[in-house]
Structures are given as C-alpha cells and as structure tokens.
Specification:
By secondary structure, the chain is mostly helical. The chain has 2 domains: 9-51; 59-89, no CATH class. The protein is built from 5 helices and no strands. Helix 1 runs antiparallel to helix 2 (32-51).
C-alpha cells in the first residue's frame, strides 16, 4: 500500500482514480484494500476542504430553500414564529 500526501492537482486526480477503482472492487471490511480506501478518502477530504472550501449559505436563503423543497409557505411558519408580519421580520 503506497499512500502519500495529496499536495498537487495531479496528486488529487491520481488519488481519485485509485479510490474509484477501489470503490468498484467493493472490498470487505478489514482488508488491505478497505484500509487503503479509508485512508485515501480521508486524504481527499482534507485536500478538498483546503482547496475547495464551501461557504455556508445565507440563513434566510437556506430557510427559503428548505421551505420551497417542502412546499411550505410563510403561513406554515406562523405556529412556530408568530403572526404573518412576524414571519417576514425574521
């Protein structure tokens, strides 16, 4: 098992290919392949967190998105927040 840090885009791409191959093998737990898969995915997660950070959404936009996905309206929030005008203040 040859595991190295991911420092460059080329390292990242090569590691993704190895992980893809390992996922296709679907190794049993506690095998060298599953341990390699676990280690490489941890390295990939660390590289992605450093190089491709995801900003947190605006709280109001996140609430609006969740409401839209659930088919809710401002009226549906009144039991939790208060009267209609109070919902729009939040």
């Amino acid at each position: 098992m040859n595991i190295r840090p991911i420092r460059t885009e080329a390292d990242y791409t090569a590691t993704l290919k190895v992980v893809s191959r390992l996922v296709e093998l679907d190794p049993d737990m506690d095998t060298p392949e599953s341990e390699q898969l676990d280690a490489l995915t941890t390295l990939i997660q660390a590289y992605e967190a450093k190089n491709f950070p995801i900003d947190l959404p605006d709280p109001i936009e996140a609430i609006n998105f969740c409401m839209e996905q659930a088919g809710l309206t401002a009226k549906d929030l009144e039991p939790m927040i208060g009267r209609h005008n109070r919902v729009y203040e939040s």
